[in-house]
Amino acid sequence: MDTLRQSPSPCSSRPSSPRTPPFEMFGPVGIEAVLDQLKIKAMKTGFEFNIMVVGQSGLGKSTMVNTLFKSKVWKSAMPSLEVPTPQTLELHSVSHVIEEKGLKLKLTVTDTPGFGDQINNDKCWDPVLGYINQQYEQYLQEELLITRQRHIPDTRVHCCVYFVPPTGHCLRPLDIEFLRRLCRTVNVVPVIARADSLTIEEREAFRSRIQQNLKTHCIEVYPQKCFDEDINDSILNGKIREQIPFAVVGADQEHLVNGRCVLGRKTKWGIIEVENIAHCEFLLLRDLLIRSHLQDLKDITHNVHYENYRVIRLNESHQLPRGPGWVNLAPASPVQLTSPGCLKVRRRAQKDSKDDEC
Ligand SMILES: Nc1nc2c(ncn2[C@@H]2O[C@H](COP(=O)(O)OP(=O)(O)O)[C@@H](O)[C@H]2O)c(=O)[nH]1
Ligand SMILES: [Mg+2]
After folding, report:
1. pLDDT of 138-161, one tens digit each?
2. CATH architecture of the domain formed by 41-74+91-99+129-317
3. Protein residues whose CB sits closer than 6 Å to any atom of ligand 1
4. Which ligand has an atom closest to residue 164 CA?
Protein backbone atom coordinates (compact mmCIF):
# COMPACT_ATOMS: atom_id res chain seq x y z
CA MET A 1 0.00 0.00 0.00
CA ASP A 2 1.16 3.48 -0.79
CA THR A 3 2.25 4.99 2.49
CA LEU A 4 2.13 8.50 1.12
CA ARG A 5 -1.58 8.14 0.46
CA GLN A 6 -2.20 7.21 4.09
CA SER A 7 -0.95 10.55 5.45
CA PRO A 8 -2.89 13.36 3.84
CA SER A 9 -0.84 16.45 3.26
CA PRO A 10 -1.81 19.56 5.26
CA CYS A 11 -2.38 21.24 1.90
CA SER A 12 -4.76 18.54 0.71
CA SER A 13 -8.02 19.86 -0.69
CA ARG A 14 -9.94 17.11 1.08
CA PRO A 15 -12.02 18.12 4.15
CA SER A 16 -9.55 18.65 6.94
CA SER A 17 -9.70 18.21 10.67
CA PRO A 18 -10.52 21.31 12.76
CA ARG A 19 -6.84 21.56 13.67
CA THR A 20 -5.52 21.58 10.08
CA PRO A 21 -6.76 24.67 8.23
CA PRO A 22 -7.61 24.21 4.54
CA PHE A 23 -5.16 25.52 1.93
CA GLU A 24 -7.34 28.55 1.17
CA MET A 25 -6.95 29.79 4.71
CA PHE A 26 -3.18 30.26 4.37
CA GLY A 27 -2.15 33.74 3.40
CA PRO A 28 -0.52 34.52 0.03
CA VAL A 29 3.02 33.18 -0.34
CA GLY A 30 4.31 36.68 -0.90
CA ILE A 31 5.07 36.71 -4.61
CA GLU A 32 4.67 40.46 -4.75
CA ALA A 33 7.74 40.79 -2.53
CA VAL A 34 9.74 39.79 -5.62
CA LEU A 35 9.13 43.33 -6.85
CA ASP A 36 10.82 44.69 -3.72
CA GLN A 37 13.73 42.32 -4.28
CA LEU A 38 14.09 43.54 -7.88
CA LYS A 39 13.96 47.14 -6.68
CA ILE A 40 16.66 46.57 -4.05
CA LYS A 41 18.84 44.84 -6.63
CA ALA A 42 18.33 47.66 -9.15
CA MET A 43 19.20 50.22 -6.47
CA LYS A 44 22.47 48.37 -5.83
CA THR A 45 23.54 47.78 -9.42
CA GLY A 46 21.98 50.80 -11.13
CA PHE A 47 21.31 51.08 -14.84
CA GLU A 48 23.45 51.65 -17.89
CA PHE A 49 21.89 53.40 -20.85
CA ASN A 50 23.63 54.38 -24.05
CA ILE A 51 22.37 56.82 -26.65
CA MET A 52 23.98 57.82 -29.93
CA VAL A 53 23.26 60.92 -32.01
CA VAL A 54 23.61 60.66 -35.78
CA GLY A 55 23.01 63.07 -38.65
CA GLN A 56 24.50 65.54 -41.07
CA SER A 57 26.86 68.15 -39.61
CA GLY A 58 25.41 71.42 -38.33
CA LEU A 59 22.02 69.95 -37.36
CA GLY A 60 22.57 70.44 -33.62
CA LYS A 61 23.65 66.96 -32.49
CA SER A 62 26.36 68.13 -30.11
CA THR A 63 24.08 70.88 -28.82
CA MET A 64 21.40 68.23 -28.17
CA VAL A 65 23.87 66.16 -26.14
CA ASN A 66 24.49 69.21 -23.95
CA THR A 67 20.75 69.95 -23.83
CA LEU A 68 20.07 66.43 -22.56
CA PHE A 69 22.70 66.74 -19.86
CA LYS A 70 21.75 70.27 -18.85
CA SER A 71 17.97 69.86 -18.83
CA LYS A 72 16.09 69.63 -15.56
CA VAL A 73 16.04 65.88 -15.01
CA TRP A 74 19.66 65.73 -13.99
CA LYS A 75 20.73 69.34 -13.96
CA SER A 76 21.93 69.22 -10.34
CA ALA A 77 24.28 66.33 -11.06
CA MET A 78 26.05 68.08 -13.92
CA PRO A 79 29.16 70.20 -13.96
CA SER A 80 28.72 73.42 -15.93
CA LEU A 81 29.23 73.15 -19.67
CA GLU A 82 29.82 76.76 -20.61
CA VAL A 83 32.32 76.18 -23.39
CA PRO A 84 30.90 76.69 -26.89
CA THR A 85 30.26 73.48 -28.83
CA PRO A 86 33.22 72.74 -31.12
CA GLN A 87 32.76 70.88 -34.39
CA THR A 88 32.74 67.14 -33.80
CA LEU A 89 35.64 65.59 -35.66
CA GLU A 90 35.53 62.06 -34.34
CA LEU A 91 33.17 59.69 -32.63
CA HIS A 92 33.29 60.21 -28.88
CA SER A 93 31.24 59.34 -25.81
CA VAL A 94 30.35 61.37 -22.72
CA SER A 95 29.16 59.52 -19.61
CA HIS A 96 27.56 60.82 -16.45
CA VAL A 97 26.14 59.01 -13.48
CA ILE A 98 22.79 60.51 -12.60
CA GLU A 99 21.33 59.76 -9.20
CA GLU A 100 17.68 60.20 -8.30
CA LYS A 101 16.09 58.88 -5.09
CA GLY A 102 19.03 56.54 -4.55
CA LEU A 103 18.77 55.00 -8.03
CA LYS A 104 21.84 55.39 -10.24
CA LEU A 105 21.74 55.71 -14.01
CA LYS A 106 24.96 55.77 -16.00
CA LEU A 107 23.98 57.66 -19.12
CA THR A 108 26.42 57.63 -22.01
CA VAL A 109 25.80 59.73 -25.10
CA THR A 110 27.96 59.06 -28.15
CA ASP A 111 28.36 62.03 -30.46
CA THR A 112 29.29 61.36 -34.08
CA PRO A 113 30.87 63.61 -36.71
CA GLY A 114 28.35 64.85 -39.25
CA PHE A 115 28.11 62.97 -42.51
CA GLY A 116 26.98 64.02 -45.93
CA ASP A 117 29.56 66.79 -46.39
CA GLN A 118 31.53 64.93 -49.02
CA ILE A 119 30.90 64.98 -52.75
CA ASN A 120 30.75 61.20 -52.63
CA ASN A 121 28.72 60.12 -49.61
CA ASP A 122 28.88 56.47 -50.56
CA LYS A 123 29.19 54.35 -47.41
CA CYS A 124 29.12 57.38 -45.09
CA TRP A 125 27.21 55.09 -42.67
CA ASP A 126 30.18 52.75 -42.25
CA PRO A 127 31.79 54.47 -39.21
CA VAL A 128 28.45 54.58 -37.36
CA LEU A 129 27.45 50.98 -38.16
CA GLY A 130 31.02 49.88 -37.44
CA TYR A 131 30.88 51.45 -33.97
CA ILE A 132 27.48 49.89 -33.15
CA ASN A 133 28.57 46.41 -34.25
CA GLN A 134 31.88 46.78 -32.48
CA GLN A 135 29.98 47.17 -29.19
CA TYR A 136 27.96 44.00 -29.95
CA GLU A 137 31.19 42.19 -30.78
CA GLN A 138 32.81 43.31 -27.51
CA TYR A 139 29.79 42.07 -25.55
CA LEU A 140 29.78 38.76 -27.43
CA GLN A 141 33.47 38.15 -26.84
CA GLU A 142 32.92 38.76 -23.11
CA GLU A 143 29.92 36.40 -23.06
CA LEU A 144 31.90 33.64 -24.73
CA LEU A 145 34.70 33.63 -22.20
CA ILE A 146 34.78 30.54 -20.03
CA THR A 147 35.41 32.65 -16.94
CA ARG A 148 32.96 35.47 -17.37
CA GLN A 149 32.59 38.67 -15.43
CA ARG A 150 29.51 38.64 -13.20
CA HIS A 151 28.43 41.84 -14.86
CA ILE A 152 29.46 42.42 -18.45
CA PRO A 153 29.92 46.16 -19.03
CA ASP A 154 27.24 47.19 -21.51
CA THR A 155 28.45 49.68 -24.10
CA ARG A 156 25.90 48.60 -26.72
CA VAL A 157 23.92 51.48 -28.24
CA HIS A 158 20.36 51.21 -26.91
CA CYS A 159 18.97 54.05 -28.98
CA CYS A 160 20.17 56.05 -31.94
CA VAL A 161 18.63 59.50 -32.35
CA TYR A 162 18.70 60.33 -36.06
CA PHE A 163 18.61 64.03 -37.01
CA VAL A 164 16.59 64.87 -40.11
CA PRO A 165 17.39 68.28 -41.66
CA PRO A 166 14.41 70.68 -41.50
CA THR A 167 14.00 70.96 -45.26
CA GLY A 168 10.20 70.90 -45.02
CA HIS A 169 10.02 68.62 -48.06
CA CYS A 170 10.60 64.92 -47.39
CA LEU A 171 13.39 62.50 -46.49
CA ARG A 172 16.41 62.79 -48.78
CA PRO A 173 17.71 59.65 -50.53
CA LEU A 174 20.78 59.78 -48.28
CA ASP A 175 18.59 59.77 -45.14
CA ILE A 176 16.56 56.86 -46.51
CA GLU A 177 19.67 54.80 -47.26
CA PHE A 178 21.18 55.59 -43.87
CA LEU A 179 17.98 54.89 -41.93
CA ARG A 180 17.36 51.63 -43.78
CA ARG A 181 20.70 50.27 -42.65
CA LEU A 182 20.53 51.73 -39.17
CA CYS A 183 17.06 50.32 -38.35
CA ARG A 184 18.25 46.79 -39.03
CA THR A 185 21.06 47.20 -36.49
CA VAL A 186 19.76 49.40 -33.65
CA ASN A 187 16.66 51.15 -32.24
CA VAL A 188 16.27 54.41 -34.14
CA VAL A 189 14.27 57.46 -33.09
CA PRO A 190 14.25 60.10 -35.85
CA VAL A 191 13.84 63.77 -34.93
CA ILE A 192 13.28 66.90 -37.00
CA ALA A 193 16.38 68.93 -36.18
CA ARG A 194 16.41 72.73 -35.65
CA ALA A 195 12.61 72.70 -35.66
CA ASP A 196 12.50 76.41 -34.81
CA SER A 197 13.10 77.07 -38.50
CA LEU A 198 9.67 75.63 -39.42
CA THR A 199 6.21 77.06 -38.75
CA ILE A 200 3.71 74.87 -36.88
CA GLU A 201 1.92 73.97 -40.14
CA GLU A 202 5.20 73.22 -41.92
CA ARG A 203 6.25 70.96 -39.04
CA GLU A 204 3.05 68.92 -39.18
CA ALA A 205 3.15 68.58 -42.97
CA PHE A 206 6.83 67.61 -42.85
CA ARG A 207 6.20 65.08 -40.09
CA SER A 208 3.43 63.31 -41.99
CA ARG A 209 5.51 63.26 -45.19
CA ILE A 210 8.41 61.66 -43.28
CA GLN A 211 6.04 59.09 -41.78
CA GLN A 212 4.82 58.31 -45.28
CA ASN A 213 8.40 57.99 -46.58
CA LEU A 214 9.30 55.60 -43.76
CA LYS A 215 6.27 53.47 -44.56
CA THR A 216 6.99 53.41 -48.29
CA HIS A 217 10.57 52.30 -47.73
CA CYS A 218 9.67 49.78 -44.97
CA ILE A 219 11.84 51.56 -42.41
CA GLU A 220 10.75 50.45 -38.93
CA VAL A 221 11.76 53.08 -36.42
CA TYR A 222 11.32 52.71 -32.65
CA PRO A 223 8.82 51.78 -31.14
CA GLN A 224 8.39 49.00 -33.71
CA LYS A 225 4.80 47.80 -34.11
CA CYS A 226 5.84 44.14 -34.22
CA PHE A 227 7.23 44.32 -30.68
CA ASP A 228 4.07 45.66 -29.01
CA GLU A 229 3.28 42.98 -26.45
CA ASP A 230 -0.34 43.75 -25.63
CA ILE A 231 -3.18 46.15 -26.26
CA ASN A 232 -1.80 48.68 -23.74
CA ASP A 233 1.53 48.76 -25.58
CA SER A 234 -0.30 49.23 -28.88
CA ILE A 235 -2.30 52.19 -27.53
CA LEU A 236 0.68 53.91 -25.87
CA ASN A 237 3.14 53.21 -28.70
CA GLY A 238 0.53 54.04 -31.32
CA LYS A 239 0.33 57.58 -29.92
CA ILE A 240 4.12 57.86 -29.95
CA ARG A 241 4.29 56.59 -33.53
CA GLU A 242 1.92 59.39 -34.56
CA GLN A 243 4.24 62.00 -32.99
CA ILE A 244 7.50 60.65 -34.43
CA PRO A 245 9.68 62.29 -35.70
CA PHE A 246 9.68 64.73 -32.78
CA ALA A 247 10.39 68.31 -33.76
CA VAL A 248 13.24 69.33 -31.44
CA VAL A 249 15.24 72.42 -30.63
CA GLY A 250 18.56 72.25 -28.81
CA ALA A 251 20.19 74.87 -26.59
CA ASP A 252 22.92 74.88 -24.02
CA GLN A 253 22.45 78.42 -22.70
CA GLU A 254 20.23 79.43 -19.80
CA HIS A 255 18.08 82.57 -19.80
CA LEU A 256 15.87 84.33 -17.27
CA VAL A 257 12.19 84.22 -18.30
CA ASN A 258 9.63 85.67 -15.83
CA GLY A 259 12.05 85.03 -12.97
CA ARG A 260 12.64 81.41 -14.06
CA CYS A 261 15.93 80.11 -15.38
CA VAL A 262 15.23 78.24 -18.62
CA LEU A 263 17.28 76.48 -21.27
CA GLY A 264 16.58 78.17 -24.55
CA ARG A 265 17.64 79.96 -27.73
CA LYS A 266 17.51 83.73 -27.59
CA THR A 267 16.22 85.36 -30.75
CA LYS A 268 15.28 88.95 -31.59
CA TRP A 269 11.62 88.19 -31.03
CA GLY A 270 11.89 86.14 -27.85
CA ILE A 271 13.27 83.01 -26.26
CA ILE A 272 12.57 79.52 -27.60
CA GLU A 273 12.38 77.36 -24.49
CA VAL A 274 13.53 73.81 -25.14
CA GLU A 275 11.64 72.39 -22.16
CA ASN A 276 8.37 74.09 -23.09
CA ILE A 277 6.08 71.75 -25.02
CA ALA A 278 4.39 74.76 -26.65
CA HIS A 279 7.73 75.64 -28.27
CA CYS A 280 9.17 72.26 -29.27
CA GLU A 281 9.03 68.52 -28.58
CA PHE A 282 12.31 68.01 -26.78
CA LEU A 283 10.39 66.92 -23.67
CA LEU A 284 8.62 64.16 -25.63
CA LEU A 285 11.99 62.86 -26.80
CA ARG A 286 13.50 62.95 -23.31
CA ASP A 287 10.44 61.29 -21.75
CA LEU A 288 10.53 58.51 -24.33
CA LEU A 289 14.23 57.88 -23.81
CA ILE A 290 14.32 58.06 -20.04
CA ARG A 291 10.93 58.12 -18.38
CA SER A 292 8.77 55.69 -20.33
CA HIS A 293 10.85 53.44 -22.61
CA LEU A 294 14.38 53.11 -21.22
CA GLN A 295 13.98 49.48 -20.16
CA ASP A 296 12.12 48.56 -23.34
CA LEU A 297 14.90 50.07 -25.48
CA LYS A 298 17.43 48.00 -23.54
CA ASP A 299 15.33 44.84 -23.87
CA ILE A 300 14.89 45.21 -27.63
CA THR A 301 18.60 45.92 -28.02
CA HIS A 302 19.48 42.75 -26.12
CA ASN A 303 16.74 40.43 -27.37
CA VAL A 304 16.50 41.54 -30.98
CA HIS A 305 19.42 43.56 -32.34
CA TYR A 306 22.21 41.96 -30.31
CA GLU A 307 20.57 38.56 -30.74
CA ASN A 308 20.60 38.98 -34.54
CA TYR A 309 24.28 39.84 -34.43
CA ARG A 310 25.01 36.93 -32.09
CA VAL A 311 23.09 34.43 -34.21
CA ILE A 312 24.96 35.42 -37.37
CA ARG A 313 28.31 35.11 -35.62
CA LEU A 314 27.55 31.82 -33.88
CA ASN A 315 25.87 30.26 -36.92
CA GLU A 316 29.06 30.77 -38.79
CA SER A 317 30.97 29.04 -36.01
CA HIS A 318 28.61 26.04 -36.24
CA GLN A 319 29.83 25.42 -39.76
CA LEU A 320 33.16 24.55 -38.24
CA PRO A 321 33.85 21.16 -36.69
CA ARG A 322 33.36 21.12 -32.92
CA GLY A 323 36.51 21.18 -30.91
CA PRO A 324 38.24 22.96 -28.09
CA GLY A 325 38.11 26.21 -29.99
CA TRP A 326 34.48 25.85 -31.06
CA VAL A 327 33.24 29.04 -29.43
CA ASN A 328 36.54 30.72 -29.92
CA LEU A 329 35.44 33.35 -32.43
CA ALA A 330 38.17 35.32 -34.05
CA PRO A 331 37.39 39.01 -33.44
CA ALA A 332 35.43 40.54 -36.31
CA SER A 333 37.41 42.56 -38.84
CA PRO A 334 36.43 46.17 -39.70
CA VAL A 335 34.75 44.97 -42.92
CA GLN A 336 32.74 42.40 -41.00
CA LEU A 337 31.62 45.03 -38.51
CA THR A 338 30.07 47.27 -41.13
CA SER A 339 28.29 44.39 -42.90
CA PRO A 340 27.62 41.66 -40.33
CA GLY A 341 25.39 39.81 -42.84
CA CYS A 342 28.52 38.34 -44.32
CA LEU A 343 30.44 37.81 -41.12
CA LYS A 344 32.82 34.92 -41.29
CA VAL A 345 34.10 33.15 -38.25
CA ARG A 346 37.59 31.96 -38.80
CA ARG A 347 39.35 29.51 -36.64
CA ARG A 348 43.01 29.97 -37.30
CA ALA A 349 43.51 26.35 -38.38
CA GLN A 350 40.31 26.32 -40.45
CA LYS A 351 40.93 29.18 -42.85
CA ASP A 352 39.78 28.02 -46.22
CA SER A 353 38.61 29.32 -49.53
CA LYS A 354 35.10 30.01 -48.17
CA ASP A 355 36.55 33.16 -46.61
CA ASP A 356 36.49 34.80 -49.98
CA GLU A 357 32.74 34.33 -50.47
CA CYS A 358 31.71 37.72 -49.10
N1 LIG B 1 18.26 77.46 -34.86
C2 LIG B 1 18.82 76.43 -34.25
N3 LIG B 1 20.14 76.32 -34.17
C4 LIG B 1 20.69 75.26 -33.51
C5 LIG B 1 19.88 74.29 -32.90
N6 LIG B 1 20.71 73.37 -32.31
C7 LIG B 1 21.96 73.78 -32.54
N8 LIG B 1 21.97 74.91 -33.24
C9 LIG B 1 23.14 75.67 -33.72
O10 LIG B 1 23.65 75.02 -34.87
C11 LIG B 1 25.07 75.11 -34.90
C12 LIG B 1 25.67 73.71 -35.03
O13 LIG B 1 25.36 72.96 -33.89
P14 LIG B 1 26.14 71.63 -33.47
O15 LIG B 1 25.52 71.14 -32.23
O16 LIG B 1 27.61 71.84 -33.46
O17 LIG B 1 25.77 70.68 -34.70
P18 LIG B 1 26.37 69.24 -35.08
O19 LIG B 1 27.35 69.45 -36.16
O20 LIG B 1 25.19 68.47 -35.57
O21 LIG B 1 26.95 68.66 -33.85
C22 LIG B 1 25.46 75.82 -33.61
O23 LIG B 1 25.68 77.18 -33.92
C24 LIG B 1 24.26 75.66 -32.71
O25 LIG B 1 24.14 76.72 -31.79
C26 LIG B 1 18.46 74.42 -33.00
O27 LIG B 1 17.68 73.60 -32.51
N28 LIG B 1 17.98 75.51 -33.67
MG1 LIG C 1 28.90 67.94 -33.48
Report:
1. 999 999 988 888 889 999 999 999
2. 3-Layer(aba) Sandwich (3.40)
3. 57-63, 85, 88, 114, 194, 196-197, 249-250, 265
4. 1
